[in-house]
Write a structure and sequence with these properties.
By secondary structure, the chain is mainly α. It has one domain. It is 82% helix and 0% strand. The chain has 3 helices and no strands. It is extended. 5% of the residues are buried. The model has no long low-confidence stretch (mean pLDDT 82).
């Protein structure tokens, strides 16, 4: 609905959405596996160069912020390339879509929480 245009076929939107969902899946699994390792490597690098012991806890908020930023950036760049719209239209649309997908994830997590709590 956000990227409606008269010169695009439904199939093109469908292929783009499958491509974007594949990218999100790849990034989520990559970030969830690699982010703690990369932060640990960064902390060790700081310790080796300065001798300063820095503790950093990778929690869900840090990971979610990094994921949302990467997804938002990719959505802005890819939709700009595909739909060839003005930056002033692409950026708000991409922010709204990213927030909507974040709301869906939060709702899904809440649903799983309720189901798990009910099963106990």
């Amino acid at each position: 609905m956000f990227f409606y245009s008269r010169n695009r076929l439904f199939f093109e939107h469908l292929v783009y959405s499958f491509h974007f969902i594949s990218f999100i899946s790849f990034i989520i699994f990559g970030i969830l596996l690699l982010l703690p390792w990369m932060i640990g490597l960064f902390i060790r690098l700081i310790y080796w160069t300065t001798g300063y012991v820095w503790s950093f806890d990778v929690n869900g908020n840090t990971t979610s912020f990094v994921l949302l930023f990467i997804i938002l950036t990719y959505l802005i760049l890819s939709s700009r390339k595909l739909y060839k719209e003005n930056w002033l239209w692409i950026i708000p649309k991409s922010i709204l879509l990213t927030l909507a997908s974040g709301a869906v994830v939060i709702g899904y997590r809440f649903l799983l929480f309720c189901i798990t709590l009910w099963m106990i």
